[in-house]
Amino acid sequence: MASAEHMKYRKMEFQPNVPDTLFSEDEIELLVTYGSWLAALMRGAISPETPAQERFVEVCNGNKNPESQFEKVWAKYIKRKIWESENPDFVGKQEADLLVNLGITGRGWGVYGHFK
């Protein structure tokens, strides 16, 4: 069973602000439902509690390639947000603020790793 800290993030709705031409309905639903929790794991706001969560963090740190659905969708999402940060004409204030909240700065994610 997930800890109270994990459940706090699992209950938070996430606004991915991604084009539905690039992300499927299922991918967007996964991001809306679990994005706050995945971002908290990636940032280190919560510690992994299962081997799958530990692996997710390893993927976020660039030490492993994404394999699970969560890892693949999150990697796709982060790559899109990095692209948006490098192409500011396509990014509005809300998305730019989201990048900072995710720990994405400049061309990568600061101390939180970088997807290959």
TrEMBL record:
Highest taxon, organism lineage: Bacteria
Gene source species: Marinobacter aromaticivorans
InterPro entries: DUF413 (IPR007335)
Name of the protein in question: Macrodomain Ori protein
Similarity comment text for this entry: Belongs to the MaoP family.
Gene label: maoP
